[in-house]
Write a structure and sequence with these properties.
alpha/beta; Collagenase (Catalytic Domain); 4-stranded mixed beta sheet; 49% helix
C-alpha cells in the first residue's frame, strides 16, 4: 500500500525580511483553498524576494523585461498533484498596496492567493478572466480575515 503524503506549503525568503504572520494558519488555509477548488497539491514553495531578483527570473524564463509582483511556475504535469514554485516581489506588493490604498498584509495575502488560484486554472489575461480571478481572491481574503 502506498502512503499518501500530506500536502506541504513552504515559505522561503531570498534576501528580504517580510514579517509574514501566522504562517501555520496561512499554510493550512492555502491547503484548504486547493481542496475547495478541487485540486490536489503535493508541494508549494512560496519564494519571497525583491524586484531585482524577480526581474531576472522574468527575463530568463519568460522573456519579459519588466517588473511584476508574482510569477507562478507549475512543475508537475497533467493530473498529478500540484508541485509549484511561486515567486513574489515584496517591493511590488508594497507599491501595489500603496497604489490601491490597501494594507501591505491584505495585498500580500491577495497575491499569495492569486498564485494559488493560477494553479487552480484561474487566469487574468482578459477582462472576464481578471474579473473572475478578482472575485475568487476577494472570496478567499474575506474567509481568511474573518
Amino acid at each position: 500500500m502506498v502512503e499518501k503524503s500530506k500536502p506541504s506549503v513552504y515559505f522561503f525568503f531570498k534576501s528580504i525580511n517580510l514579517g509574514l504572520k501566522n504562517r501555520k494558519k496561512l499554510k493550512d488555509f492555502i491547503i484548504l483553498l486547493f481542496k475547495k477548488e478541487g485540486k490536489k497539491i503535493e508541494q508549494l514553495n512560496y519564494i519571497f524576494c525583491n524586484d531585482r531578483y524577480l526581474l531576472e527570473i522574468n527575463k530568463k524564463y519568460l522573456g519579459h523585461n519588466f517588473y511584476t509582483d508574482i510569477i507562478t511556475f507549475k512543475l508537475s504535469e497533467g493530473k498529478k498533484p500540484i508541485i509549484a514554485d511561486i515567486y513574489i516581489s515584496k517591493e511590488r506588493v508594497w507599491d501595489n498596496a500603496h497604489l490601491l490604498e490597501k494594507t501591505f498584509q491584505t495585498e500580500l495575502h491577495r497575491v499569495i492567493f492569486h498564485g494559488a488560484l493560477h494553479l487552480c486554472n484561474y487566469y487574468d489575461k482578459g477582462r472576464k478572466q481578471k474579473s473572475k480571478m478578482t472575485r475568487r481572491e476577494d472570496h478567499y481574503l474575506s474567509k481568511y480575515f474573518s
